[in-house]
Amino acid sequence: MDLPHHGYRATKPRARAAAPLTDSLLFEDTSSAAPAMSSQGYYTPGYDMTGASAGIQEGPGVNNLFTDPMANAAVMYGSSLANQGKDMVNKEISRFMSVNKLKYFFAVDTRYVLKKLTLLMFPYMHQDWEVRYHRDTPLTPRQDVNAPDLYIPTMAFITYILLAGMALGIQKRFSPEVLGLCASTALVWIIIEVLVMLLSLYLLTVHTDLSTFDLIAYSGYKYVGMIFTVLSGLLFGSDGYFVALAWSSCAIMFFIVHSLKMKIVPSLSSDSMMGTGAGAKPQLRLYITVATALFQPIIIYWLTSHLVR
Fold this sequence. Notes:
Layout: H1 49-57, H2 60-67, H3 69-96, H4 99-104, H5 110-121, E1 133-134, E2 137-138, H6 151-170, H7 176-203, H8 212-220, H9 222-264, H10 268-272, H11 280-304
Antiparallel strand pairs: 1-2
């Protein structure tokens, strides 16, 4: 029996088809996957950085830096340039001073320092002033108390500057500018004294084994007496200052005359054999020695009088 159609189409019921396996899901399940690095480059918690760092370290760029022949050649070339520069600096320094000779003047020990300080302050009982030699080479200061050194002058110069700062501080006159002026003045006086000695020996054609370091050493020994003078002035006033000034001046003059006489005056005999025309030179050499000794008290007074009031 046919049913009448009322404008509707008869349809058969359809079964719901399963979603194809190849289609992409609308929301991806990320519960079991490892979190990845965000697009901005920030580190996401839970991400294993060891693998990434291992990958970076194993990159070809870093390894090539150490295996590249050009890089190794550049390193070797830079090292050779540095060595050449070091040799050039040492050569230029050696033109003006000998490092080995400079070490000779600092070859001292405690026993030598004590004996030398005693000799500088009490030189009147000392008999043998000759510098000893071994195979035409002077003995080091630690082996011969008569040998000049630079250790005592250097330490005495530094001590004098520190003592000057203390004296100025006690008198409430301390300032960095005043202390700098005091140090520079003391240094300039040493330079002037050494240059005058060198010029005098050159003009008089005095053949002696005195070197520039020897003259610096003999010129710097006066600072030992200057320290004694300033300390006496600070402790005992002006009376103590002048007594110490007289003592240290006489001591340094006695020391300078007997020390330089062994270096300059021994060449008198060789000049006397050259004829009567060379008779004036021995007297001038003796005058140089005496003038150097007489110049020491003037410098001592000039550099210490303003520190004691």
